[in-house]
Amino acid sequence: MAMILSxxxxxxGELLLDLAKNEVEMLFGVPGEIKKLQNNLxxxxxxxxxxxxxxxxDEAVDDWLKELKDFMYDADDILDLCRIEADKxxxxxxxxSSVQFSFPFLSAIRNLPVGHEIGTKIRELNQRLEExxxxxxxxxLELASPDMQQVTSQISRKTSPVSxxxxxxxxxxxxxxxxxxxxxxxxxxxxxxxxxIVGAGGIGKTTLAKNIYNxxxxxxxxxxxxxxxxxxEFDEINLLKDIIGDAQNQSRSSLEPEVESSLRGKKLFLxxxxxxxxxxxxxxxxxxxxxxxxxxxxxxxxRNEQIAKQMMAVNTHHVHKxxxxxxxxxLCKKVVLTGEEGEIQHLKDIGMEIVKKCDGLPLAIxxxxxxxxxxxxxxxxxxxxxxxxxxxxxxxxxxxxxxxxLSYEDLPSYLKQCFIYCSLFPEDHKILxxxxxxxxxxxxxxxxxxxxxxxxxxxEYYRELIMRNLLQPCPDYFLTCQMHDLLHSLARYLAxxxxxxxxxxxxxxxxxxxxxxxxxxxxxxxxxxxxxPMTEMADVLVTKDAVRTLMWQGSSMSEARMDDIFNVxxxxxxxxxxxxxxxxxxxxxxxxxNISCTSISAIPESIxxxxxxxxxEMCGCSNLSRLPNSIVNLHNLRSLNLFATKVVGMPAGIxxxxxxxxxxxxxxxxxxxxxxxxxxxxxxxxxLTNLLIQKMERxxxxxxxxxxQLRNKPKLRVLRLNCTPDLQPSEEEMxxxxxxxxxxxxxxxxxxxQSYNYFGREFPKWMAETSSSTSILFPNLRRLWLxxxxxxxxxxxxxxxxxxxxxRISGFxxxxxxxxxxxxxxxxxxSSGCGRAAVDTSKYAFPRLRSLNIWNMRNxxxxxxxxxxQAMPCLNYLLLHHCPKLMSLPEGLLLHATSLTKxxxxxxxxxxxxxxxxxxxxxxxxxxxxxxxxxxxxxxTDLYVRRCPKLKVxxxxxxxxxxxxxxxxxxxLPSYLLKRVQRGTKKRKRVQVAHLKKLKIYCSTExxxxxxxxxxxxxxxxxxxxxxxxxxxDRSVHVLYNKSPFSFTTNFNDATTISxxxxxxSSGGIGL
Length: 1072
Fold this sequence. Notes:
Elements: H1 2-21, H2 25-28, H3 33-45, H4 48-54, H5 59-93, H6 106-109, H7 115-136, H8 153-156, H9 172-184, E1 192-198, H10 205-213, H11 216-221, E2 224-229, H12 236-244, H13 252-263, E3 268-275, H14 279-285, E4 296-302, H15 305-310, E5 315-318, H16 324-335, H17 348-357, H18 362-372, H19 379-386, H20 403-409, H21 413-421, E6 431-432, H22 433-442, H23 454-467, E7 472-473, E8 480-482, H24 485-495, E9 499-502, E10 519-523, H25 533-541, E11 549-553, H26 559-568, E12 574-576, E13 592-594, E14 615-617, E15 639-641, E16 662-666, E17 690-693, H27 702-706, E18 718-722, H28 731-743, E19 752-756, H29 765-768, H30 773-777, E20 783-787, E21 806-810, E22 818-819, E23 851-855, E24 862-863, E25 877-881, H31 891-896, E26 902-906, E27 913-915, E28 922-926, E29 933-935, E30 942-946, E31 953-955, E32 962-966, E33 998-1002, H32 1005-1011, H33 1018-1023, E34 1027-1031, E35 1038-1042, E36 1047-1050, E37 1057-1058, E38 1064-1065
Parallel strand pairs: 1-4, 1-5, 2-3, 3-4, 9-10, 10-11, 11-12, 12-13, 13-14, 14-15, 15-16, 16-17, 17-18, 18-19, 19-20, 20-21, 21-23, 22-24, 23-25, 25-26, 26-28, 27-29, 28-30, 29-31, 30-32, 32-33, 33-34
Antiparallel strand pairs: 6-8, 7-8, 34-35, 35-36, 37-38
């Protein structure tokens, strides 16, 4: 319990210190009580750490901590009420107060009519705390100082928290290859076959399945690929929705035919991860998936081999524990950067003893590595981990003993409470960093230190939990994580009955433990009739008056029942809900309110009474068009998210919300007289870190924009300035928007800048700066979007931005035909005949740019970048999308972009050659009608060619391993692939087909027929390639060929197949 109590002790202790300094107990009529409360709290705080350790094994200590925590929750509520009342009185009478106090609200306390009531409650608190202190004497608790609140990730570990799939074990690559071979092998026993991966919890089943799922051969073989986390208490509706994608239906009876229809005739690869019962297959999916085409596969991961048998798996792979050496290798990988393992080799003897305790389980090893990476690399520190008593703590569920509990026990208290809070979400739930950090703040878990904001501190907490391997980043989702199911089990156990996750009907009312229920998460519980689970849940919640978090993602209930609930749940700090209760103003303690993506169309004026509200999330409320005027009374608001709503304006007074850090969807109006907020009110919002302004065209003048003083917002990191798309502006409006943007100069702190639908002809001077002062103006800018600037006649000069990593530009004016040294430091010329500015080529342009994306430059013809201009040394990805008149890639790109590994060209219909890119590894060309030559790409391994009808020369690609051709009009293999005798004296080096490991072709059925015939010109080429996959447009017809071991399979009716000697045989469509 210390993980929450220490935070409360710190917060409550600071208040009591201020109260004692100012002798406020006299105001409450309780002389000496506050100092007594302060002393009692100080004494108890010294035994919290020992009590937390002993609670696992000692039920009496656990009961004592429960009582203490109840006390602290009650104390926190009393403190909140005091602040709320004082805030109200301060607004009314602070100017008349003759006594001044240092604590913000104490000047108003003297006049509080509730002073006697508060004094009585303080006296009662003291009596309770003294009883708790006396009870403590029964347990022989040791004294210890509370741990310091310091984020350790800043000082401990070099490794990046970026997600990776950990591949360890001497035979893991072999296992991946073997399983993929089996999954794609032709086997017609049934349309859909089940394969299984079996092993203990934390042994690496999911890691192996992820590697298989991401294998290129799987990606190529199956037209539909799905990953579904099943878990022990799976929800049928959610599972069906995960398979179909974005489904609106809410019942099994309507979803099953929808799944069947969407997958009919398609070749499916479905991973069912963490299956606990065969019912998910036998009773739910078996019949539903029968419509899939032959060759479909299900890959199941499970701890129980019997489940694999009951699902009639045709192949079961057992994952075994790691050897000691492999365990040590994984530990090294997770503690230090790859290649730096030598830094801890002197600790190998201790390290081997540590991994022995992990029993060959990768999850346990990674958890311990998360502990070690916070320690000094000394024998003393590592021995401390080896000898920790946490290894042998009893009283825990067997599956979370040892390393997993050690990883929790090592956490400082501020991280313990954050880790446990994550268990409120269902197993396998994807947790957004931006959401969980706000929830931690709302619950009072985060205390900012120094110059850091609470948001920045919470983000550090998030990163440290990832660094410690207690949260796992989701590689396919930005700033999103999950908890491993065993770590989720540990956190759920530690939370006990304080948290209640409801995702199925039978779980309603299942929280009956001795602890008071504090947090509830409701997911997809659907009402049936008038006495269904929603009614039952309401009956339970009206008896749980201590709930602080309610996240309701299920169906709505009746208004009367909702009011019954919220009249009781007056202590809520966090609320996520589909519909607002009429009694909203009773939720005086509320910090976080999320109504995003709901049909709510109006917010009551009573929301202004929620003085403690910090986060108001309304993103995606498409029916919401107006905000209540009282929203300006929410003085503690830190985040206001209106993105993707239809709010037409903001009420005047938004500028009073001086703690706002995030304001997304600010909608300016020009008429303050009608009660609207203008952009000038942004001036006083000096704490902003993230700002999105919509409908910029509504800003009436440059003076109004200047008054916003964006340049004077020292913490602003993300700025997005959007105009309405598809406007038809007049000359006057174009001039005005240029003047407005000129005055909205971002501060030097900005890291991300986006502009959509800007309709000026010139960019503002602060963006068009050509001198070295650019690096001074925006030293921190890393990401820049300039989208659909359809009237701009020249590109901005951003080559000197010292830290720019990502640049995306799109949709500039038709007059932009010639892009020049603005890709470094100069200007561009246009059809209007503008000249070029001088270029300082002594500097690297774009010194850190990694990704360059250029879209919809429909008249762009020339990219001038000569060999003398050094630029983009770090560029590794270049996308040119719909630049149909660009004739060639610049010489400077070929010479200086030495880190370029991936190039994608879409609708580049005037480009004739791609050559001499020495570092390029992946080339993707789609619809280049005039492309004739691809050559001299010595590092290229992957080539994708789609609809390039004039491409005749593909040569000097000596590293090419994989090639994909897509053209459904293609009736024969292109000449650069065909293997035939060269005539004449001039010979070209064509594609070395013998070096190709894989060729994939999407083509006409006519070409498929030729590939199946030995006498065709295509067969000599095909037979020399290790693996060939050929598909018709709808993938209904295919050819699957392997050179060694030989196999040839096709379902083309007219085809002959190839025998093991490479000769055609008369049988059709059967794999050999």
